[in-house]
Amino acid sequence: MGLAALSLSLSACSVGRVGAPSTTARGARATASTVQTITVGGLSRTFHVYRPAAVTGATRVPLVVMLHGGFGSGTQAEASYGWDAEADRAGFVVVYPDGVNHAWDVGGGCCGTPGTTGVDDVAFVSKVVAALVRSEPIDPARVYATGISNGGMLAYRLACDTRLFAAIGPDSATLLGSCAHPAPVSVIHIHGTADHNIPYEGGQGNGYAKIDGPPVPSVVAGWRSVDGCAPPATSTAGPVTRSLATCPGGRAVELVTIAGAGHQWPGAVAKPVLERLLGLDPPSTALDATDTIWQFFSAHRLG
Question: Domains in the chain, start-ordered, CATH in brackets?
Answer without folding.
Answer: 2-7+27-297 (3.40.50.1820)
